Amino acid sequence: MGKFGIVGILVCLSVLVGGCSSIPLSTMVQFSTFDESDFLEIDPNHIRAKVQLEQGFALSTDKSKLEIGIETLNGYSNYLFPLQELAVKMIEPKNTFFFTPEPVIEYQLTLTPQAVAAFLALQQEIKAKKPESYSLSVGTHLGERPENAESVTMSVLLKLGENNDYFTLVDNAALALDNTGE
Q1: Predicted pLDDT at 84
Q2: Is the pTM of this model over 0.85?
Q3: How far apart are CA 149 and CA 167, in angstroms?
Q4: Is the CB of residue 128 less than 8 Å from the CB of residue 121?
Q5: 123 and 116 in contact (C-beta within 8 Å)?
Q6: How are beta strands 133-140 and 5-13 bridged, if at all?
Q7: 48-54 and 17-18: which strand pairing?
Q8: Could you tell me the residue ranges of all domains in the chain?
Q9: CA distance 155 to 51
Q10: Could you report the per-residue pLDDT of 91-103, keeping only the tens digit for each?
Q11: pLDDT at 88
C-alpha cells in the first residue's frame, strides 16, 4: 500500500471567523509518515478535537465538524463528520515571569454516533479507492462573543486514537472576525 500524500491540514472557521494560520512544523513531521494503513486503524469512537478560545467567546458546538477530503484518480471527494460536545472546562494558564495569561475555555468534541458509522463506511471505501492524497480539517462556528470584538485567539488540537496524544492544528492563532454576525 502506498503512502498517502498530505494535501493539507486545515482549520476551517465559518462565517464569523476568517484568517489563516500556519500549521506547526511538529504536526507536519508527525504526518509525513502517515499512510493508508494508519488511517484504516483509526477507531472513530476515539477521535477527539479540542478547541481552545479566549475567555468571553463561546463555540457553537452543534455546527462543528471533522472534514476529510480524498483525492483519487477519479477526482476529489469531501466527507463531513458532525462533532458533538463531550466536555467544556476553563483552563487557567500558568503565570510567566513577564505576564499573567488570560484563562481559556476548552471544548472537547467527539464524533456523533451517525458520524462514527459514516467514518467506518469511509474506511471501507478507502480500501477500494486507494486515495493518492487526503486533507483533514476541523470546522467550527463561534457562538457568543464580546461586543465589538475584532479578533479571537484560538487553538485547535486533534486526537486520532485512544492511546495517541493530541496534535496541534492551530496554536494560539489570532483570527480576525467577520463583522456580519450570524
Answers
A1: 97
A2: no
A3: 28
A4: no
A5: no
A6: parallel
A7: unpaired
A8: 5-177
A9: 6
A10: 887 766 776 678 8
A11: 95
